[in-house]
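#struct-queue
[09:14] JT: dropping the first one here, sequence first, then the structure tokens:
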Amino acid sequence: GDHGDHGDHGDEDHHEHSHSVSVLYPDNTTAVYELDHDMLPENATGWDLTNMTMSSNNISLNYSVHETLGHSVSGINGIDLVWDECACYWSLQVWNESSEAWEESSVGIDSVMMTHDDNDHIAWAASNADMSLLEEPGHEEHNPLDEAMEDYMAGMLMDAFNTSDSDGDSLLSVTELENFFVAIDDMEEQFESASTEIMIAAFDADGDGQLSMSEFMGMMGSMSEDDGDHDDHGDDHGDHDEDEMVCYDMSTHSVDATYTTQADCEAAGLMWTAADSGSDHDDEEMMEMMMEMMFNMSDMNGDGFLDASELEMFMEMGEEHAGHVKIHIEAEGDYGFALPHDVEFHVIMGEGGHDDHDDHGDHDDHGDDHGDHDEDDMVCYDMSTHTVDATHTTQADCEAAGLMWTAANSGPGGDDHDEHGDEDDHDDHDDHADEETLNYDPHSWLDPVAFKVQMNIVLDGLIAAFPSGEDEFRANAEEFGVELDALDDAYEAAFGENGTCAANQKTVAANHNAYSYIAVRYDIQFVTVHGLDPEGEPSPEDIAKVVEHINEEGLTTLFVEEYTDPGSVGSIVQDTGVTILYLYTMEMAPIDASDDYLSLMNKNLDNLVAGIGC
């Protein structure tokens, strides 16, 4: 048939009398905005088109005007590109009808005339974006994934046709048509199994058969846009008056109020942007960090690319749902997250990292406000739920239920534990009420009584899962429970009311906030000397701070964990003469494979007794 008459001439006429401005953002997402030619002034320039199009779509523009070069665009929709900050800029592109391609303009925006010849369409593209993703005029709904799916489907249909055309005459007989329909029925499953192949075809800009980090970012940006999360880059951005603009410091992610004009702000090397765009920067940065994390998690061979199998693993992870949360830590300490067995949790270090341990001078004294606790001041604490159990009102009933009898104000924001006397001030140490209380310490297993409660929870779970083994489980639990009781008795013999260490000052210094349960159970006061990360190598500055702290406090013994860097420990001993003893938190497998919970807890007991000097 004659295909020459197909199509809507009205549409063609529409495009002849309209212009478009395309935008390619740094994250490789795109947007296209149109403006009728009649809206433009006579002898309109590219600046007229840009300014009027963005204004009519509530898209903000940041720009400057040079007396010779004219208008220069530095920011679109709150995204400023400054060469000194990112080695990138907003590049002006002009659509060449003859070559059907975008070309970087050889003249400034004021010299591009909207004359209905080759200049019907212009684009602003981030110079650090993938220019191949810049949409062609008239293809606002361009979606690389849709195109790849269409191409793949067309290829499948062609293969099915050729396979069914058994005589090769390019025509299908009735029998061949029946075979074709059978082939089509099998295509759905084949199409679903080829999802990763289609994804790679859609976003593999360089055609190497795999996705680089930037191509992966483009894929994620496109998928986010399809989900409606991108809001077309600015549906809710209004025009910003001078009063609505602020000076934004990208190095600190904060507004610098000392600069109130664009000239002063940019002269200081900062970003002049919309007042309501600050949170967008943080969100975009967080999303970029998440995408990098997901890319690296899926890049199993670490070659910097995702092949089809690695992309399939990523997509399966997405089907199982992934999300992110922001965690703002109010008080320094050790935090744990209780997760279902089939949930993975990955930590992305935020701003500031874990390097702000140097100032601990604002904490309260440990020894000024602690009075003796009457029976009315005590509560029964359930460590498995971190809540007070009000059904037990006496110590005997509480401990018979396997719970902890403790001071009512030992939780967050309370005073502290039992009387520690006024012998020493510890201005530079952590306040138990803020940082070392039970709610902030996951190391509950370091209290044998708490560990026995956990053992019984495990016992119930094992019996529920494997009922046939109940007798053996209960026998083993009973035997181990006796050993835990004996361990608790040994700690009480040393640190209890009439214990061998009762007359001593039961204050010890450690390098980790991990001993709140021991502190509460056995009335030992722990103070934390910051700077020695048991799972990292401390810097010379960290070691110097620890040495200074030890000397200031007159400490003679410092408790560290077994994985603390030996080099840093040796340096501290040499500079201070302090005795180093070990406490085992059992967060990682013991260095000595013959050790177990009971042996390590007994080592902790021996070292605590030696360190306290009793």
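[09:21] JT: and here's the second one, same format:
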Amino acid sequence: MGLSHYEKKKYVWKMLYIHMLGYDVDFGHMETVSLISALKYPEKQVGYIVTSCLLNENNDFLRMVINTVRNDIIGRNETYQCLALTMMSVQLTGRAQRIRASVEPERTSVVGGYHGRLAGAQQEITADIFTMRQKYARRSCALQRSDLPIIVEMDSILAVNLIQPRDLDRSIYSWIVKVYKLPTDRIYATYFGGDDKAGLAPDTESKDIWLKYLPNERVLPFGCKDNFWEMGDTGPCGPCTEIHFDRIGNRDAASLVNNDDPTCIEIWNLVFIQNKMSNYDTDVFMPLFDAIHKLAGAGIQPYSGKVGSDDVGKVDMAYRVVADHIRTLSFAIADGSQPGNEGREYVLRRILRRAVHFGHQKLMAKQGFFSSLVDVFVRVMGDVFPELKDNEKKIKGIIKEEEASFENTLAKGYERFKKAADAVKENGGAVLSGQARGTIRLAANLLSWMLMLHRSCAIRGLPAQMIARNSNTRYSSVVKAIYTGSEFIASASGDEDFGLVLESTSFYAEQGGQAMKLASSIETDINEASKLDGATLEKKIGSIKNTLDAAAIPAARKADLKGNVSKLEDQLREAKKKMGKENIQKAVKTAIDAAEAAVSEGKPFCVIHADVGLDTTAVREAVVKAMDRFKGLPIMVFSTDEASNKAVIYAGVPPDAPNGFKVLDWLTPSIAPLKGKGGGGKNGLAQGQGSDGSRVKEAMELATQIASMKLG
């Protein structure tokens, strides 16, 4: 039996989570691409997202969905068009990065954000969406674009690709036509036709490139309004070339391009801005680099933009780390956040500490250097983002306090570490014991930094002996593989960076520790609850939901647990439906049997107890059915719940009952012992409930007495 769409969605989300943790995912692709062909948006959306992340153009499964993607783009459903175009944008980004292998764009912090690969950020020159909002001179961009980055804007998705205009035939156009097979006779290209008043020449380079692929009548010039891209009055700017697609076909749609016609839409925008190889070379970062250099120790050279092996001592990387992190922290604090011990606030604390550590160890900066950069950053960005100026004092104060606290911890910890490492070296060893780590009292990531700095006690190339959190325990494991980040190797040594795949580990899973223990505990509660029923199950579900909502556990894990709770709720609803049917059958049978006995005995009324808890529907149905069966017979049905000590009561008296006998005249005094209240009376039916169910026998006796007096 195949998976349902809901089960497929859960399955592929888990696949994506595994992929995000860094593992190869070579299974479940069929379920992923099948969701793209689904008719409902929720399934199609998941299919597109996961396919974009997991598959490339060489994957056989991706080829299976090309027709679906093409149909979604050509079709009339704008939502599906957006999904398809977004996937194309993501796929193009990956292809562009492969074209320009000399530069590897990597996303860094975006206002208040944080790149998951914090330890690797700034090692390469980064291309950064956020930088497009920075402060540049409006007309400073040169139109000599042979070395300019192209910013690909597509369906509200901005992806910065370091590719050249001349590479269009290998990237964007070929991707649209050769991979997604959009018909070429429905594609139009636009380019910047120049602006004499602004002193801007036509973009003939883009025109000439497009004429290699499209006829002259489908390569169209436009002015600044449509084909000169700019971010506000002071933001980055540059000529752009766009790709438009005629959704109808078999016509000349040139007049509809850039004319707000829904049948001829822009699907791609290529923007050429700034004669810079990196956003770190722009006037956003250069003032920061100058300020950092003034704070650096003697002999530290100015920032030179070197990366990789050219960046000896990782000095330029340290410049980028410090500059990028002061930007991230400044915006985050201005937006109301601040470094702390949990969640996103802990991420900010790690960012700050990383910047301070790099400043001291790589740039030889003095204590307190980091917070002093706030003044420079606010001066650079404050005009564009006034919230920085409004919160400048607060930003600087928080960073200064955090920086001082960390420097104090770092100084004490390093002294302890140096003593422990020197002791190990004197004894001919190379591995710190768990007990030594407990003495140092520093987090594992700081110890890792210190181990790399203090080569006398290194961790690289050693057997897989891991320092456990338990201060007097050491764990050993078998090395199954060595991974460099791009390939598996047979051996490694020296200063190479590599990772070890171990047979077993003493460490918690990703985002483990107490969070994972809590998640396991909640899962156990859910499994136990599935064995319960009725009110006990309902109460347990409420308790689990409260615990789960407040639990600080990974979002994917929490989503899985909430899905399991939903199944419990479904179980409870089904149980209630079943119990409701059974209660009605039970109450009706009890009432009819009692009414039949009363009639055979010549009694003019019937008072009974139906054991169906507080199920008012069942009690009411019992009264109605009995009165239908035995016309003219007044009847009152009581039911109680021991757990809550409450009672529900329904009574029915025919309109033509003798002696003016009315239902409320019977119900109201009868339920007084139950501390009850009643109401109704329409059509001879009334209901009540009481808060003292233990006195139900007394109430039933009173009801019998009242009916006997009235009816004889």
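[09:30] RK: nice, looked through the second one.
[09:31] RK: The longest helix spans residues 555-601.
[09:31] JT: good to know. The chain is about 45% helix and 10% strand.
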